[in-house]
Automatic annotation (TrEMBL):
This is Vitrin. Residues 40-133 form the LCCL domain. Residues 293-474, 495-664 form the VWFA domain. GO terms for cellular component: interstitial matrix. The gene is VIT. Keywords: Disulfide bond, Extracellular matrix, Glycoprotein, Neurogenesis, Repeat, Secreted, Signal. It comes from the Eukaryota.
Amino acid sequence: MGIAVLAMKASVIEMFLVLLLIGTSGSKEVTKKSKKPKFSVPQINCDVKAGKIINPEFIAKCPAGCQDPKYHVYGTDIYASYSSVCGAAVHSGVIDNSGGKILVRKVAGQSGYKGSYSNGIRSLSLPRWRESFIISEGKQKRGMTYPSTLEYSSPRSSVVAKTDETTKPYQKSEILVSTTPLPTMTIRVPATTPAEAVSTSPNPWTPLDTTTMSTSTITVRLQPAGHRIRDMGFRSTAAYAGNRSITRAHPARETGFWKPGLALLDAGARPNEELKMKSVEPASKGDPNCKVDLSFLIDGSWSIGKRRFRIQKQFLKDISQALDMGPAGPLLGIVQYGNDPSMEFNLKTHVDSKDLKAAIEKISQKGGLSNVGRALSFVTKNFFSNANGNRGGAPNVAIVMVDGWPTDKVEEASRLARESGINIFFITIEGAVENEKQNVIEPNFVNKAVCRQNGFYSFNVPSWFSLHKIVQPLVKRVCDTNRLACSKTCLNSADVGFVIDGSSSVGTGNFRTLLQFVANLSKEFEISDTDTRIGAVQYTYEQRLEFGFDKYGTKQDLLNAIKRVNYWSGGTSTGAAISYALEHLFGKSKTNKRKLMVLITDGRSYDDVRVPAMAAHQNGVITYSIGIAWAAQDELEVIATHPTKDHSFFVDEFDDLYKVVPKIIQNICTEFNSQPRN
């Protein structure tokens, strides 16, 4: 009996252990089943636009190489959904050209999108768009769930991008053609993949219907690498690796049917449906942040050779592509020089990059010497004119390309160009080596020519074959309009003549205060031989030229000269002083300078001011009259240019003169900005 009891106990213990093991195993299985799956990041291609993705918020991985300008981006910080997602991510600085993970969130459409240059990408401006998006680092937010697959909008059905797959729904392509018989390859395409094929039927519009078959068989001819012909009725690319190939075709632009953004042979779409839903890329009016008038002076001399001349033309086409050209942005014209310069086309001939690139391709080489100085003189006198499309308010920029060195002198021609408000850049390719420097006509010609000798306006390229490397740096500098120091402004383009009352009523102490006013006003201008120049006349009964416009070329030298002016003392013949200043001061003013006279007096004139003042106005001298204490208001108004309220000022005390300096400068600049420039 004891044995039976022991056996029963052993059996109970065994059953208990079995139940315990089963319970533990079940618990582990439950734990395993309830474990949260790891999030997988879907990949997208550089050409995928945000508007094609249905998901309102998602994390995605961008590949390398999305900095290419062919991936258009619209806006800054907030981007139009017509933009390349990955291109916008590079522009925003969230990733670089090597790719990476990003977080995309859709937001409402904006009334306008502002283009800008950032991180190697020039985004475009757009008036308005229906939907926007913003980019941030590709990190999951706590409590948020992100899709592992992305849904794409499609004419007939939803296209899903799965994790670790790449899709190329918008890839543009080119056709590769061979004149020799080529092998064929048969490719099996799953029905879930939108297939696009080169049609061999008489009607190239007939789409491949993959909606009713599990797999499709397509026969394409593989093309040997490097064989291309561009004047064909179709554009396509055959890309193959291993046993996979995707081929797509579009009727060429010349047929009149194809537009950017339109895929004619997407799976399941009929031609008439596609034409109804085509999306034409919005035409850009140009980047308003880069509104400049550009003149390229290209080297057509025999020294460059035909091959390098083609490289030069390709460089110009790359520049036109990198610039967001248009009426509200940059415009570009080209002058080719050899023995003599000639205008290939002006600023208003081509207002978009596509037309400009076609025109550049047609330029033929002139030949001759490299007479850069003569070309710069031609540009100064002829290029930047209203008839040639100069817009006045846009800075003028001349970019000179020279192979080696010029065959004439450039210093004087460059000085006149700078004085006309032209910002000169120099690109020197394959410059003179040590044993060639003896052949250079004008040593250090680059520094003598450019707008400023600070490195900003010059590029030294060691080889024509590395010219492409400076495309983006050049565009960035040209579009940085705040640094275009030679552009005409209200502060750098005038000859300013002070006519100073030195009569006995002023007194020595007040005369020092008056000179401080002259110094304060002068400090506001950019002083140099080619910028604003300052001259001064002191008068009593008589007149004295204290210094002329050509005397002092730096601001410090000028301010020191003002301090050294000695008080004269005497009567007050203001009319005679105006006549004297017109002859001895403004008579030596440069023709391309605005002439500003600032007359300061503390009393009524002993002689008539009306005739001299009228002579000043008729000679184009803009006159500002500053009256102090006992100055006659009626005389101040006669002297001042109309409207007198903007050109005549009065203060009760000499110590109050400093108060009118900001208002005078403001009025000078307001008047300047309201007038056509250059």
